[in-house]
Amino acid sequence: MLxxxxxxxxxxxxxxxxxxxxxxGLYAWQGYVPGWGAPYGGxxxxxxxxxxxxxxxxxxPLLVPSSGDATKxxxxxxxxxxxxxxxxHHVASGGGKLTVLGLDVExxxxxxxxxxxxxxxxxxxxACQRSGVASVVYGSxxxxxSLATTGAPSIIYPGEWPNGANAPTGALDLAQIxxxxxxxxxxxxxxxxxxxxxxxxxxxxxxxxxxxxxxAIPYCRPVAQPTPNPAPAPDPTVPTELGAGVYTLPSGAKxxxx
Length: 258
Description:
Distance between the termini: 74 Å
Helix content: 25-40%
Order of helices and strands: EHEHEHHEEHHEHEEEEEE
Number of helices: 7
């Protein structure tokens, strides 16, 4: 089973290495974007992003609005496109490329203002689409189900904990998340399921939430460094220093050196 961890604190390299070694199914990590809204724990540092990407793990950055009021969040002044730029800078600071960006809509917020947050989530998804980035919206299953319309986010990320902070007692299936119609977001890589709340895991001194994920999720990855073009090797049939005379090249052409 492929798992994504989510923790408020910025893990360092040693923690990421330890967690990866102790949890063979660990495939990705979700972190919080600093400098936008009010991310839990102050937001992830560039070093935390680098630690995750450097261990070959995928990364999902998540925007957390600073208010539960859909009309009083930073995007209203700066636009959702600016929020995507925040995400780009955040991932680039850790040596990666933004390919997916998430928005956190907590259950009490959407319950208090369903239409307001529904409009905000769809506007966020549209901004991601304009930038060529896959959009993820985190929230309760009932809120996410309301987004099943034209312009819906690329990926849904329901928080649905069958057994609270304890491990689930039965098998999990991304195709069958309670509260989400099986026919919606049914394509490959369209679902992440946060199935367990804050708990301890082997290899980490900090608590994490755990999610079931998929190989098809387009997680942020390191930027590939260009391979320098090697200098052409000298033709072994032609001396590198030519004395006076007439020389025949492999092509048959002749050159005269005086």
